[in-house]
Amino acid sequence: MRSRLALGMTCAAVLALFIPSAISADSDDWDIKLLTSPSSWERVYPNNLNRHGKIVGFWEAGTQADGTYEIHAICWEDHDSSPVELEELPGDDQCWAADVNKKGMICGSSGGGLPKGVIWDAEGDPKNVHPEGDEYVWSQVWSLDDKGNGCGSMATTSGMRPWYWSEDGTSKQMPFDTDDYWGGIAFSVNEMGMVSGMLWDKSAAPYWAHAVFWTKKGELVEIHDDVDDAVDGDVTWSFAWEATDVGEIAGECGTTDGDVIAWVWSKDGVEILDADDELAAVAWQSDGRFVVGAVGGDSIDFSTATASVWVRDEDDDEVTWTLEKVPALTGYDGMITIGANKKGEFAGAAAASDGTIRAWYAEYDDDD
Fold first, then answer.
1. ∠ CA 163-286-33, rounded to 5°
2. Residue (of 5, 99, 95, 59) closest to 359 by Cα position
3. Distance from C-alpha of 14 to C-alpha of 95, rounded to nearest angstrom
4. Of all helices (H) and strands (E), which one includes residue 255?
5. Residue 31 Cα to chain centre, angstroms
6. Rounded Cα–Cα distance for residues 11 and 283 (Å)
7. Which has more confidence, 245 or 229?
8. Could you read off the pLDDT of 51-94 as tens digits, one per residue?
9. How far is 212 from 230, CA to CA, in rounded Å?
10. Considering 14, 199, 237, 317, which has the largest number of Cβ atoms within 10 A of its Cβ?
């Protein structure tokens, strides 16, 4: 019986059309391999994985310029399984998956040019969470906590708004002063109720993004200046990508010199993450034990980057972060780590010279 997660995939997607997960690399601490995916999927990205090893992401093909672009949300039940495509909302032919919680619920969006926020239940049935009303143009759910609360972005007739979806079915805009900011995006919600994201600052042309987070009570905390003070150079933009379950914020920023810098904010200040003398380092996601990203690339192009993980260690209330570089996969020029769980499992993407991108899975064990 075909999984209800599948859309348009049949047994005719024969094994010969799949790229096997045989390509692997090992080191003393790492075990890494490609995830299985059909060769017809030009670019495959995992976005996150939960504590049970369920991995979600998307594949895409074509380009917007020539009208051939398509994107489809996908899910691997575990790192040894073949991926299945998630079901779109009725009438849609494209979708995107961003996150998965411990219950197996998945969030993202459905639709092409004007997508609608969607949450798939653990069985793969999609629910449209886009609010009714002409003022709501399109939406995307970026993150889910384990209760089913989510956050993301809502395009309205007044601009882009950071948005919050409650498990009870209601939703709301995250507060900010429209005199100071044009709009923004909420990237992540943690189990403490913190929501991280960014707002576009009207005073910093051309509306540079500034890192922020909201407390459980919905109070806005601006941390861009904290990041700027910690960086050697003038910071123009910053993103607060991930609110961790220990109350820290992982993000990245850019300087007037063109450097891209990864950082972690806590109540004690901002820690700049080691980039091993590279000019760029990005921090995408974190679960509290790890921060993941890459060094040597940037947020858009990781074709020459090295997939990286920063490992958190706390001793006598002093927190340190140690850079670990993920072993390279044979035949790929650049890699980035995108998702992580507390067990030391990771998912990321690898770029080949022919423009194809493949998803990979890795396990990390630093026990001697």
1. 120
2. 59
3. 23
4. strand 249-255
5. 22
6. 38
7. 229
8. 999 999 999 999 989 999 999 999 999 999 999 999 999 999 99
9. 16
10. 199
